[in-house]
């Protein structure tokens, strides 16, 4: 009888160790991974450049600059840049109307236009060099550089001479 008690106690210890060091941590890990992927799937958003433009146009003040930031990041990929005229016209229109908006919207819109690589935005960005906000002016100059917009060279030289010639 003593042998059966010893076997029973050893068997009980094995099950305790099995549950304590393998099964319970495995279950906790599985639930943690499921929890992580559940939130990853629930919070995943795929937005197109047109969706971001719509958010910039009609979104709340914080959503506008965030959408402009996301758009500028998204348009750095040349495969995603829309080629249609409607998108180009909407970008220019939003940029021109954003002069009365949060300067961050205008800044990120300028960078978005520069990252497209489309020469058509150059003349609009040259006008952006006259903004009141320094960040917006700098973004317009950077966007012109990203576009390699040759007609802007004289305007940028003139801009720097005016701003930095007098101490």
TrEMBL record:
Key words, A-Z: Membrane, Transmembrane, Transmembrane helix
Keyword Transmembrane helix (UniProt): yes
UniProt cross-references to InterPro entries, sorted A to Z: ARM-like, ARM-type_fold
Keyword Membrane (UniProt): yes
Membrane-crossing residue ranges in chain numbering: 17-39
Protein name (database record): HEAT repeat domain-containing protein
Species annotation: marine metagenome
Species classification: unclassified sequences, metagenomes, ecological metagenomes
